[in-house]
Amino acid sequence: MDLRLQDRVAVVTGASKGIGLAVARTLAEEGARVVAGARSAGGLAALPEVTAVVVDLARPGGPEQLVAQAIEAHGRVDVLVNNVGAVTPRTGGFLSITDADFEGSLQLDFLSALRATRAAVADMLPRGEGAIVNVASVNAFFHPDGLVADYGAAKAALVNLSLALAQELGPRGIRVNNVSPGPVETDLWLGEGGVAATVGAAAGIDPADVRAGATAGIATGRFSTPDEVATLVALLASPRTANVTGANYVIDGGLVKTL
């Protein structure tokens, strides 16, 4: 299927690895002109067709810089994918989570997307078209977990903002949607210092057992892959889904069992 993304200008945040890298690659394969931002080029070096921008997206001005560079290079932004994010499992419980922890999560997981969206929308509005896709998380709404309370709160804020913006911007040609993954085969979950390793160390068990415990509740019996998430993001970025806005698509292998 042709997603009609040829020559569309797409900005992707947090694109050096994991889901973001898969999104950048998928959009480029569909013919989009991709400008991808992250604190390091990372895996983007293997995608010469993608313009990599080294930028701290948690810093005020960072997301705006990324969008500005895309506009400078290509004259506009048609698609924005707010993917950047990170999670630190709080194995010490709620009382161990400081104000600084919450502020850090809000800066990276919510405010970075807000700032990028503000900059992109300012460019989209005069043309009356655009697509914004936010990579949220099932932690925003499904059995909120004290282990990731600050992360879940930030992602919930992102989903809530998206719904409000979809209502405001829909009549002006700009669509805003969310993709909420469950566990994904990325460093966030499986890498050194990831969820499995951190929880395993705190509980005195092997990280593989932590993964097995998480997988046990998934109907398909496995984590999603970054490419699977990227496919859903690309579809929502496409004009083929032009009447989809204010939606939150879950990709979790059947982890969420309620409507």
In summary, what is this structure?
Helices cover 41% and strands 14% of the residues. It is α/β, with parallel strands linked by helices. It has a 7-stranded parallel beta sheet, with helices on both faces.
Order of helices and strands: EHEEHEHEHEHHHHE
- Indicate the structural class: alpha/beta
- Rg, please? 18 Å
Strand content: 5-15%
Number of helices: 8
Major beta sheet summary: 7 strands, parallel
Mean pLDDT: 94
Instruction: Please estimate the helix content.
Output: 40-55%
Tell me about this structure.
With 259 residues, the chain is of the alpha/beta class. It contains eight helices and seven strands; from the N terminus they run βαββαβαβαβααααβ. It has a seven-stranded parallel sheet, with helices on both faces. Helix 1 (18-29) packs across helix 8 (226-237), helix 2 packs parallel to helix 3 (99-124) and helix 6 (195-203) crosses helix 7. The longest helix is centred in the middle third of the chain and has 26 residues, at 99-124.
Characteristic key phrases:
259 residues; alpha/beta; seven-stranded parallel β-sheet; 41% helix; globular
